[in-house]
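Need the bound structure for pyridoxal-5'-phosphate, inputs here:
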Amino acid sequence: MPMPFLQDEVDDLKKRGVFTEQRVLNGPQLPTSVIDGKEVINMSSNNYLGLATHPRLKKAMIEATEKWGAGAGAVRPIIGTNEIHIELEKRLAEFKGTESSLVFVAGIAANRGTIQALLSNKQDEDAVISDQLNHASIIDGVRLTKAKRYIFNHCDMADLEAKLKEAQGHRRIMVITDGVFSMDGDIAPLDEIAKLVKEYGAFTFADDAHASGVLGPNGRGTVSHFVEQGKMEYEDWDIQMGTLSKGLGCLGGYICGTRNLTDHLRHAARPFLFSTAHPPGVAAACIAALDVVMEEPELVETLWKNTDFFKKGLKDLGFDTGRSETPIAPIIVGDEAKTMEFMRRLYDAGVMGVGIVFPTVPRGAARVRTIVTATHTMEELQKALDIFEKIGKQMEIV
Ligand SMILES: Cc1ncc(COP(=O)(O)O)c(C=O)c1O
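Answer from helper R.:
Posting the output first, comments after.
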């Protein structure tokens, strides 16, 4: 048997009851989709605004492909940068209220590349202070550096301040947080973080993967959400990272900030330097997505109307949606086996939510995570609530 250790790995997954078959979508990503051959209400995608199948994105992608070809042909710094990539970066900077932006092939590449480029590979020369519940791609980025690591308790400003005090004396101090937390759907207090960080001479980084296209005016993200409330200015936040793959419906990650920041990253961020550029069609579709969110603000409004309806429905039924403040609505179950059984029964009854267990969330906090989109109809959401009620009662979750 070639590489017998692989059999051990697979057997171990099966023994722990966490081995899964790949779930497969049989058709487009829609609010009601065919998943593994069965039509279900799809409450698992990150396609917040339904842009993955929006006619304007599809048209832009096809036209750009006809005009410029299917592939970029090189990494960005060699000769993979097409004028359409530059246009997208200009548009993203405008969208996020910053001087400049730089696009990476994926959000994970943007996080890893940027964190590594900004922090030293000399042991403990720099420091990074990271929220306890930050996304895996941030954790990976931090692990690529030799910065001294501090983890602050989730959204706990007193603990952040304590860690800022401890970290004094390092060459650079980065404070990094998700804008919207992907497993709980709560919002980081960027305004308070910015104030604290200023006092201690650090700089700030927010991962807005789940806020872009979702939060703030026209879905401009978490910084704009607090700017709109008069609690901070754009200049108070140093680095805004976002993805083009969730609310904006296509593919990619980006970093927004000063021109100096993106100039530095162009020369130092390894996933930018050593990975082929997006096909032009991807850049064109992302530009179309920005056009849609700017010209059709009702999409973001509908997303929030649907979110309020669905989450109120869940709460009225007695489900625990934890700290959620956004369309990410976890239904906390606690027990891992019960959570996975809940997910299976929901699917059989016609709703696709995803069971999430340790280590993605702490032990005892297993949940089925649902995500509301702007394209769900009220009928679909009500039907999903009816199914949640039926299965939740059967399983004595409510
Ligand atoms: C918070 C967060 N950051 C980064 C990423 C990575 O983005 P991408 O899928 O574009 O690589 C994700 C999810 O995919 C995410 O949820």
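Comments: The chain has two domains: 5-53+297-394, 55-295. Residues 106-108, 111, 135, 137, 178, 182, 207, 209-210, 243, 245, 253 surround pyridoxal-5'-phosphate (CB under 6 Å).
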